[in-house]
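subagent[fold] <- orchestrator: predict structure for attached chain, return tokens only, no commentary.
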Amino acid sequence: ALRQHRAIQSMSRKGNCWDNAVAESFFHTLKAHIVHDSVFKTRKEANVALFEYIETYYNRVRRHSANGWLSPNAFMQKHLLLLEGTTV
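subagent[fold] -> orchestrator:
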């Protein structure tokens, strides 16, 4: 299927979490806060819990060292304000 669409598969090297450290860090945090010690009765219940965690906590509240200790939403707002002052 990939060849048919001229797509190239992109994967980390086997056993090397450093190839995609940002994603690895996100999923570690997600599992620690939501997945471990949780039992979901339905897939929909799990989806709602994941959505709420990401949208109400991870993006709005949780501060990230890579963003200068701002939440992702605050970092994006700051970035957009900086872009308003630039010219093309």
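orchestrator: received. Logging for downstream: The chain has one domain: 18-84. Residues 18-84 form one domain.
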